[in-house]
């Protein structure tokens, strides 16, 4: 496996330590998502886990 495809969580070159806790779900894509696609993923997870999307700038939920 090359370093290009190596995935780390909470342990980067800028410092900090590895994540030590429970993770309910990880969603990974092999490309950058568009704003609309990211909103669809965020909406899906918010509804699934019963949390509210950040409304600092008004955001509509998107059907998945």
The percent range for strand residues is under 5%
Distance between the termini: 32 Å
Helical content band: 10-25%
Largest sheet: none
Number of discrete helical segments: 1
Order of helices and strands: H
Q: Which shape, going by the Cα principal axes?
A: extended
Low-confidence stretches: none
Helix and strand composition category? mainly alpha
What do the pLDDT scores average to? 79
Domain unit count: 1
Counting DSSP E segments of at least 2 residues, the number of strands comes to 0
- Rg, please? 15 Å
Task: Spell out the blueprint of helices and strands.
Elements (H helix, E strand, L loop, with lengths): L34 H15 L15
Describe the structure.
The protein is an all-alpha fold. It has one domain (3-49). The protein has one helix and no strands. The chain has one helix at 35-49. The radius of gyration is 15 Å and the shape is extended.
Structural key phrases:
single chain; 64 residues; mainly alpha; 1 helix; 23% helix
In short:
This protein has one helix at 35-49. It is mostly helical.
